[in-house]
Design goal:
The chain has two domains: 3-30 and 205-238; 44-193, no CATH class. Helix content is 41%, strand content 21%. It is built from seven helices and ten strands.
């Protein structure tokens, strides 16, 4: 084989092998990335925690994914005119919208209706803290339970009444995570102690995800390596 062809073949095989290895690494990292949340932009986020000073209080902080979602909610609550929803499906968002929606009684009532907490099978009573800059920092609902809370069931149904494609990415103590949607509306949270096992289970599930995602890519990388080795043997035989 002429030298220039050997160089081209070696470069092609090397590039292919590196690309396959990169694909395997990328697939492993993608396995841990949450799936897309909803069709309108960033997902809602939720943080669940027990009050350190008042063990019978559970804090649920809700933050909207995008400001235009607040506009959509404001229209549904009757706080904004319906013509803010455009015929093409887009939303006519204005910077003043969060300031109109956040402090309203309708918004607080909506959160208390769509977010609920139970502990030991008994409902907790919610109260919405006056939100400040709701589009940026969100809103917090404090739930007072009948007694000290070790674990609680949090039900989250915000925005899914407007479109079932909405999602909420939730976090809790010690790395606990959950995804809320129109099907999975409730999740049990360990708020004090005993969450190490849950975190370990999350780690094991993540490892299984990586193995399943990379299993299909590994044979391709193996073929690339075999081609590379065959090329080296052929080059040595020629030289």
């Amino acid at each position: 084989m002429p030298p220039h062809r050997r160089r081209r073949w070696r470069g092609a095989v090397t590039a292919f092998a590196l690309a396959m290895c990169s694909a395997v690494a990328t697939a492993a990292s993608v396995a841990l990335v949450p799936a897309a949340a909803h069709p309108f932009g960033d997902p809602q986020t939720v943080a669940v925690a027990r009050d350190e000073q008042r063990p019978d209080v559970v804090h649920v902080r809700w933050r909207v994914g995008g400001p235009d979602d607040l506009t959509l909610l404001g229209v549904s609550l009757g706080l904004l005119p319906e013509d803010r929803l455009l015929p093409d499906g887009n939303v006519d968002y204005r910077y003043s919208d969060p300031g109109l929606v956040g402090p309203s009684e309708q918004f607080s009532a909506y959160l208390l209706k769509r977010i609920t907490v139970t502990a030991d099978g008994r409902p907790c009573v919610g109260a919405v803290e006056p939100p400040r800059a709701v589009a940026r920092t969100g809103a917090t609902v404090d739930f007072t339970c009948p007694g000290p809370v070790g674990s609680a069931t949090v039900t989250m149904r915000t925005l899914t009444d407007l479109n079932s494609a909405y999602r909420a990415l939730a976090t809790g103590p010690d790395g606990q995570r959950a995804v809320y949607d129109s099907v999975r509306e409730s999740h049990d949270w360990v708020l004090t102690g005993g969450s190490a096992t849950r975190s370990a289970n999350l780690g094991r599930r993540a490892a299984v995800q990586i193995v399943s995602v990379t299993a299909g890519a590994l044979p391709v990388a193996t073929v690339a390596l075999m081609l590379f080795r065959r090329f080296n043997r052929r080059r040595k035989a020629v030289t």
